[in-house]
Backbone:
């Protein structure tokens, strides 16, 4: 979010409208991550939920933790009530195709709350994944608790995605404030 071009895109009225429609309120972008798969940077992402949030400072509260630090920012695994206040919009800078390691999701898996690794694997075994092919310039929305993964790319085509996270408020509760990372 420190990059002016990324911050400007995150504040774009069209993206804010999408996030607001999902969260049911005004929203604030608090974190952006660029994912780039290419012939040089090709990785596998196993099935998981996104449960970590960047926070201004560590605190003690039920359901939060364990804590870690990345680039001087405190992160904690968050409880479901906090993660329900977040949505990610994935802006596709390149087309996502069957060959370049697209996002795969387990539909409606976010409704199960925060799951253990074993529960995630059981859900994946019991349900049919969906491959998310998105054209260049397309936007895909997802909740943090949606079980998702991606395979290594089989083609040399790049797949760049700007993953922007929005919350209904930077202040999730008294003393619990999201960091803008």
Residues:
């Amino acid at each position: 979010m420190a990059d002016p071009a990324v911050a400007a895109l995150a504040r774009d009225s069209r993206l804010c409208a999408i996030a607001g429609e999902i969260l049911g309120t005004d929203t604030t972008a608090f974190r952006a991550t660029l994912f780039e798969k290419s012939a040089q940077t090709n990785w596998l992402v196993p099935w998981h939920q996104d449960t970590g949030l960047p926070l201004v400072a560590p605190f003690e509260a039920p359901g939060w933790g364990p804590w870690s630090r990345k680039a001087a920012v405190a992160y904690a695994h968050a409880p479901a009530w906090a993660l329900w206040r977040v949505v990610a919009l994935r802006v596709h800078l390149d087309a996502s195709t069957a060959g370049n390691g697209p996002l795969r999701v387990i539909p409606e898996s976010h409704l199960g709350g925060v799951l253990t690794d074993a529960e995630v694997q059981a859900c994946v075994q019991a349900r049919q994944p969906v491959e998310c092919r998105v054209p260049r310039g397309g936007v895909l929305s997802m909740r943090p608790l949606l079980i998702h993964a991606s395979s290594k790319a089989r083609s040399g085509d790049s797949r760049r995605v700007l993953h922007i996270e929005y919350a209904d408020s930077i202040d999730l509760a008294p003393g619990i404030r999201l960091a803008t990372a």
Observations:
- The longest helix spans residues 13-23.
- The first strand starts at residue 28 and ends at 37.
- Residues 99 and 154 are 5 Å apart (CA to CA).
